[in-house]
Design goal:
This protein is 30% helix and 34% strand. The chain contains 9 helices and 16 strands. It is α+β, with helices and mostly antiparallel strands and 289 residues long. Strand 14 and strand 15 form a beta hairpin. The strands form 3 sheets. A 7-stranded mixed beta sheet has the order 2-3-4-1-5-12-6, with helices on both faces. It has a 5-stranded mixed beta sheet with strand order 9-8-10-7-11.
């Protein structure tokens, strides 16, 4: 049994390969090839544009793939959504497709663009967005560099943004959010109906989510006298509840928990003040909830 997984080529490629590596499934890529092997001999990968991923998954050319919710909706194709994976090329958040116009344009609302030209790569979603509002606009497909088209080639655009910096650099102003999107692991229906392939795909989803949950978090271990335990627990922002175990000395307890890495700077000194001892901070590879 061989599983073929699609990895999005382009802006999400490096972030996805890093996520696979943190999940324990390193993909061995070649700059001259669109194919990659992995540490699991039963899983191979193929680099495919995110915009085309749903098509090849639905057709069964690949068993599963990672792409954005935006491109799944845009394609209108029938695939299985296995898992949401909230990460982008720069952050762990969602991205937005926004309606934007030049800073100095008179347009203040989507309705102001009636009978105007809007350029975008996300044509079907954009047409549906304006149709729902009852606004008649001319939606044109953009082959890229969409931010530079207003005002000469289009009156407004619908473009994806993560931080908004590119829009600001091109002197564009956001009017409304058209769609929020995040990365998803999708699967072909026949492949997902196969018991062995489904097990592999579900395991991949589990490990990818675990790697994401571990990102920006650290583990903490410490020892504390029994009478000081309440004070230590009051300091800890536990992921769920800390694990508490007995040491060989009945007066001492061991505490193990997970915290945000950014919180360690403040938490560790406060733990020391609460009379914790032997405090150890350690990195995490995966957190499976």
């Amino acid at each position: 049994m061989k599983l073929l997984i699609g990895i999005p080529k382009g802006s999400l490629q490096e972030a996805t390969l890093q996520l696979f590596a943190r999940a324990g499934l390193t993909a061995y890529t070649n700059l001259r090839s669109y194919h990659a092997t992995t540490a699991d001999p039963e899983i191979d990968c193929m680099l495919i544009r995110a915009q085309e991923m749903a098509r090849y998954v639905e057709h069964g050319a690949i068993d599963a793939g990672l792409t954005g919710l935006d491109w799944v909706i845009e394609s209108g194709l029938d695939v299985v959504t296995v898992s949401d994976l909230i990460y982008a090329k720069r952050s762990r958040g969602k991205v937005r497709w926004v309606l934007a116009v030049p800073e100095d344009s008179p347009y203040q609302r989507a309705e102001d663009l009636a009978q105007r030209i809007v350029a975008t790569e996300l044509v079907s979603v954009t047409r549906g967005y304006f149709a729902t509002k009852g606004i008649d606009v001319r939606v044109e497909f953009s082959w890229g560099a969409t931010e530079v088209k207003p005002p000469m080639l289009a009156d407004g655009i619908v473009e994806v943004t993560e931080t908004g910096s590119s829009l600001k650099a091109n002197r564009l102003r956001i009017l409304e959010t058209v769609l929020e999107s995040n990365t998803q692991l999708i699967a072909n229906r026949c492949s997902y109906a196969n018991r062995e392939k489904r097990r592999k795909i579900d395991n991949l989803a589990l490990m990818l989510r675990g790697a994401m949950e571990a990102q920006d978090r650290v583990g903490l271990m410490l020892n504390v006298r029994r009478e000081n335990l309440a004070g230590v627990l009051a300091v800890l922002p536990a992921l769920q509840k800390p694990t508490i175990s007995h040491l060989s000395d009945e007066d001492w307890l061991a505490v193990n928990t997970v915290i945000d890495e950014s919180a360690a700077w403040e938490v560790i000194p406060r733990l020391k003040e609460a009379k914790a001892e032997g405090i150890v901070e350690y990195p995490l590879n995966k957190v499976v909830l």
